[in-house]
Design brief:
- The protein is an alpha+beta fold and 117 residues long.
- The chain has one domain (12-116).
- The protein has 2 helices and 6 strands, in the order ββββββαα.
- Strands 1, 2, 3, 4, 5 and 6 form a 6-stranded antiparallel β-sheet that branches.
- The longest helix has 23 residues, at 94-116.
């Protein structure tokens, strides 16, 4: 199990599932329970190339916070996150917010089911 000691509030973490990358901001670490309270930022998709070939898919800043096991996350690297953050717009359209929430829910269901098998 990964140690959460290094995860700090405001740090950006990544949860990887297949080609998808969920980037979140740490709100609080509940180390005794090995859980992390995080705020979703964005969902990106890897294009299969090296050097973090990522495409921004959804702005998740309007989505609900998550409480998820710490060991699902890794610290995000600046060079992978900064280009994606630069692509985020100031405000998303309502239909984009709805789609983002739906995609986050689908992803979290997939991650949960994959870890139950």
């Amino acid at each position: 199990m990964k140690s959460a000691v290094n995860f700090q509030p405001l740090q950006i973490l990544c949860l990887e599932h297949d080609r998808l990358r969920l980037y979140v901001e740490v709100i609080q670490v509940a180390e005794p329970r090995q859980m992390c309270w995080v705020r979703p930022l964005m969902l990106a998709e890897a294009d299969g190339s090296s050097n973090f070939g990522l495409t921004l898919r959804h702005d998740l800043r309007q989505c609900a916070d998550l409480l998820w096991p710490i060991d699902a996350f890794r610290a995000a690297i600046d060079t992978e996150v900064l280009p994606l953050l630069a692509q985020l717009k100031e405000a998303a359209q309502p239909e984009a917010v709805w789609a983002a929430r739906q995609q986050l829910q689908i992803l979290m269901q997939q991650v949960w089911q994959a870890n139950q098998a």
